[in-house]
Amino acid sequence: MLSMTDGVIRFRYKHHRDHDRMKVMALQVEMFIRRFLLHILPKGLMRIRFRPTDPRRPAGS
């Protein structure tokens, strides 16, 4: 987070579609909190990471 003024939060993020360039976004506090909370899982749930398989490699390597 870079700054918070007048109910607006400015933060830096990595833009993957733009060759991983760092950019700055400004959001209202309510929208920032809403987006942040989307990344928190309810108690008892576990995040499953997707790992693409390569058909040329044997399983488990």
Would you kindly provide a written description of the structure presented here, covering whatever features stand out?
It is built from one helix and three strands, in the order βββα. It has one helix at 29-37, and strands spanning 3-5, 8-15, 21-28. Strands 1-2-3 form a three-stranded antiparallel β-sheet. It starts with a strand and ends in a 24-residue tail after the last helix. The mean pLDDT is 87.
SSE blueprint and pairings:
Elements: E1 3-5, E2 8-15, E3 21-28, H1 29-37
Antiparallel strand pairs: 1-2, 2-3
The total count of strands amounts to: 3
Strand-residue proportion: 25-35%
* Approximate shape: flat
DSSP helix fraction: 10-25%
Q: Total helix count?
A: 1
Side-by-side strand order of the widest sheet: 1-2-3
Identify low-pLDDT runs: none
Q: How does the major sheet shape up?
A: 3 strands, antiparallel
Please report the distance between the alpha carbons of the first and last residues. Answer: 38 Å
How do the SSEs run, as a string of H and E? EEEH
Radius of gyration: 18 Å
What structural class do the secondary elements suggest?
alpha+beta
Query: Mean pLDDT across all residues, rounded?
Result: 87
